[in-house]
Amino acid sequence: MASLIPCPHCGVRPKEEFYIKGDAGIVRPAPTASDEEWTDYMFMRRNPVGRYQELWHHLSGCRRWLVVERDTVSHQVYVVIDAAAARERGGA
């Protein structure tokens, strides 16, 4: 059975409609940041176990960016919110 993602705009949709970008908490360094900061930003990523917030793009639906909180072991989805709304709240 396919995994289902509850899009806040389109309703429950199969995960194949989405593109996963990765960690929703990554912050781009300033243009004047050091080479080390840019290297960390570009290449160093966490590989967490458990609940994790990711940035997903609903390519085959509303085309909105979403923050999906899911468990990386069980793949259970806990929360899905629009990324713009999350940013307004001060989150991801």
Low-pLDDT sequence parts: none
The coarse overall form would be: globular
Biggest beta sheet attributes? 4 strands, antiparallel
Q: What spatial order of strands do you see in the largest sheet?
A: 3-4-5-6
CATH topology: Folate-binding fold
First-residue to last-residue Cα separation: 30 Å
Helix amount, in percent?
Answer: 10-25%
CATH superfamily label: Folate-binding superfamily
Keywords:
single chain; 92 residues; alpha+beta; Folate-binding fold; 4-stranded antiparallel beta sheet; 2 helices; globular
Write up what this structure looks like.
The protein contains 2 helices and 6 strands. The chain starts with a strand and ends with a helix. It has a single domain, classed as Folate-binding superfamily (Folate-binding fold), CATH 3.30.2270. The chain is an alpha+beta fold and 92 residues long. β5 and β6 form a beta hairpin. The longest helix has 9 residues, at 35-43. Helices cover 16% and strands 36% of the residues. The protein is globular and about 45 Å long. The strands form 2 sheets. The chain has a 4-stranded antiparallel beta sheet with strand order 3-4-5-6. Strands 1-2 form a two-stranded antiparallel ribbon.
Briefly summarize what is shown.
This protein has about 90 residues and is an alpha+beta fold. It has helices at about 35-45, 85-90; strands at about 5, 10-15, 20-25, 50-55, 65-70, 75-80. The protein has 2 helices and 6 strands; from the N terminus they run E-E-E-H-E-E-E-H.
Write the topology of this structure.
Layout: E1 4-7, E2 11-14, E3 19-23, H1 35-43, E4 51-57, E5 65-71, E6 77-82, H2 83-88
Antiparallel strand pairs: 1-2, 3-4, 4-5, 5-6
